[in-house]
Fold this protein.
Amino acid sequence: MPELPEVEIHARNLRRWLVGRRVEQCQVVDSSLVVPETAGELQAALQGRRFDGVIRRAKYVLCCLDDLTLVVHLRMTGRFVLDSYAAGPATRPTRLTLLLDNGTRVRFEDRRRFGRVWLVPAGKETELSELRSLGPDALLDLDGHGALEKACRVSRRSVKALLMDQHVIGGIGNICAAEILFRAGVHPATPASDLDACSVSRIARAIPRFLEWAIEAQSRKELIYLGEKGAENVFSLYRRAGEPCPACGTPIRRTVVAGRGTYWCATCQPEPAAAPTDGRRSAG
Ligand SMILES: [Zn+2]
């Protein structure tokens, strides 16, 4: 599932492909992609408009067109692909295509069809409840560190659940949380309020370092997500149970924390004395 690094790579690709380009035609291949407008309304609204910017907010991509913003959440398997008109008809798993004035075509592919697209007036993006409820962006917002410290002080949930909660800090998912906690030397099931100031600070420092590394390590024109055919696992622990820890050689372990499979090293990330109180709130 794409998390902040993968969404950032898509946003950077889209910036190159879309900005300055006019939409000759928008085709919604799968109408369930669009909420709450109809496919016809979205197609008509985009026709003839020009893209003037692409930004990322947590796991959302915002494509700005004149006075409208196209907001996209990739969810499980969504990805943007660039090809040309000559590449033939857009077949499954394409859900939306944008034919541009330079003869290129940008497609939104989404095998599992959980991705969603919203159209909002420019400047009214935060009226969308999905964006309004987001915490500070894990990569861009300087107050993310403070938000994390504050949330840690008052929560008995596991630190992993807290990192994945999009209301606390936006953009971190299951893979990023495991890798960040490994870099910080903190066990994922540690109750957040048991963390000392040093540990919280190590996590806060590890967040942008890991995210920047993961963006760099995976940047390419067509992203293949872990679990898909041809995917390359660039991560230190994720899906590597039984393999030696890259820092100390101890076999990597897998357990379930905050309802999701997680990976950790028993030497680098000692188990906490107390159990967290996960399950009262869902992790985003
Ligand atoms: Zn280790």
Notes: The helical segments are 4-18, 39-46, 129-132, 144-154, 159-164, 174-184, 197-218.
